[in-house]
Write a structure and sequence with these properties.
By secondary structure, the protein is mainly alpha-helical. It has 4 helices and 2 strands; from the N terminus they run H-E-H-H-E-H. 41% of the residues lie in helices and 4% in strands. It is globular.
Amino acid sequence: MILKGTKFQIKVWKYLRTIPSGKVKTYKQVAIAIKRPKSARAVANACGKNPYAPKVPCHRVIRSNGSLGGFSAPGGTKAKKNLLKKEGFSF
């Protein structure tokens, strides 16, 4: 899959593809994993601009407090919750 976006967005999206089905990471964990530990908010923005969902699974990224955060794909956070449940993630 050829990803089109900024260098930062592509870095985030490539990392998201490594998160296994049924597992979640926080925006901060993603930021640390891509070697940009202070960029959790930018990671959230990159997830929000992800045009490749659900193939690039931004629904697997949640807030540090355990809440879902946003989901810009059709259906919003309800769809995010349903995708995670379908993958076996329990809340």
